[in-house]
Amino acid sequence: MRILVIYAHPVAESLNGTIFACVKESLAEAGHEVDALDLYQDGFDPVLSAEERNAYFDTDANRARTAPYADRIERAQGLVFVFPTWCLGPPAILKGFFDRVMVPGVSFRVGEDGTLHPNLQHVRRAAAVVTYGRERPILWWFGDPPRRMMTRYLKWFLAPGTRPVFLGHYGLHKPNRAREERFLAKVRKAMLRF
Question: What are the backbone angles phi and psi of residue 34, rounded to the nearest 5°?
Fold first, then answer.
């Protein structure tokens, strides 16, 4: 299976960088073809311009602007996102990826009557590996926006029956090496079974 791994953290030596490496290695070990996309390393521009927003429903223009990324999504049979939570959401670069790439003509279609239809029916597997500075009860109180984005919003675009796997590592403001190692083992196990 061809898996697109989308990574959004600027520091390769961070825990997220270690997780990204673990995800890629584990998926490859499981026999998957891994397409790794490091949004920072790639220089992805997350800014949605006024011109892009005004032409949001122009599928030809959308494809032209985001072709290198849209092509990779369209070739993928699985998607894995690796990112930290900053200010209760994904980094701006990943939010911009959704704003600029997951658009009409790529991730969904707009019917003649204006109804929306998922367009990533070829994606049968999805996962998100997300780190948080705060403990889970605090995120629960705020509704855990990254979890909802990855398990509810993303799910709508994908093949029917696809249930995104969510792996969250909470409490990074209180570093604990043993807990980080256990989480990496959990990530490895999930990716080997992906």
Answer: -105, 125
To the nearest 10 degrees (0 to 180), the angle between helices 59-75 and 92-101 is: 120
Yes or no: say if 154 and 109 are a contact pair by the CB < 8 Å rule. no
Note down the domain range covering 86: 2-192
- Give the three-class secondary structure for 11: coil
Query: Do residues 36 and 7 touch, judged by C-beta distance below 8 A?
Result: yes
Whether residue 139 has pLDDT greater than 80:
no
> Which domain CATH number covers 76?
3.40.50.360
Band the pLDDT of 13: cuts 50, 70, 90.
very high
Domain count across the chain: 1
| pTM over cut 0.70 | yes
Percent of the chain with pLDDT over 90: 78
